């Protein structure tokens, strides 16, 4: 992974075989991100896992083992140290140009992943909500 920051904008590149979530944690730690917004991300994933929220405590997860183009990645990250929360949604395209999307649970870079992240001073916290079973975003 390579990354640079200027004026609260971070550009990063992830390389083949790198785990997307682990490298995002590394970027957050390296650049002291407390709250970050994924502005843009594209590349190709060798494998990934997407989720779809059905109901409290129930995600429908699906793994994709062959390479998929990452058309878009959006979301918010928050935390500090080793404790980061990521709420990320990905849009993927297969070789037949079919599109898949959902909550990004995990992914491994195939060729490249290029990402732009904006740091924010807005403090947020994710708190588990009893009604939904999800970690909701709360502003401080």
Most strands sheet: 7 strands, antiparallel
Structural class, judged by helices and strands? mainly beta
Range of helix content: under 10%
The CATH superfamily is identified as Hypothetical protein, similar to alpha- acetolactate decarboxylase, domain 2
Question: What descriptive keywords fit this protein?
Answer:
single chain; 140 residues; 60s Ribosomal Protein L30, Chain: A; 7-stranded antiparallel sheet; 9 strands; 8% helix
Characterization of this structure:
This protein is mainly beta and 140 residues long. It has one domain (2-139): 2-Layer Sandwich (60s Ribosomal Protein L30, Chain: A). The protein contains one helix and nine strands, in the order ββαβββββββ. Strands 1, 2, 3, 4, 5, 6 and 7 form a seven-stranded antiparallel sheet that branches. Strand 3 and strand 4 form a beta hairpin. The relative contact order is 0.28. The model has no long low-confidence stretch (mean pLDDT 94).
């Amino acid at each position: 992974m390579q990354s640079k920051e200027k004026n609260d904008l971070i550009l990063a590149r992830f390389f083949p075989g790198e785990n997307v979530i682990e490298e995002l944690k590394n970027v957050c730690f390296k650049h002291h991100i407390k709250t970050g917004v994924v502005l843009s991300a594209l590349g190709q994933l060798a494998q990934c896992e997407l989720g779809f929220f059905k109901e409290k405590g129930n995600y429908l997860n699906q793994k994709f083992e062959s390479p998929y183009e990452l058309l878009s990645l959006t979301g918010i990250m928050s935390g500090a140290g080793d404790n980061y929360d990521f709420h990320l949604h990905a849009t993927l395209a297969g070789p037949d140009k079919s599109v898949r999307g959902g909550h990004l649970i995990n992914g491994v870079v195939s060729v490249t992943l290029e990402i732009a992240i904006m740091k924010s001073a807005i403090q947020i916290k994710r708190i588990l909500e009893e009604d939904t079973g999800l970690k909701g975003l709360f502003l401080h």
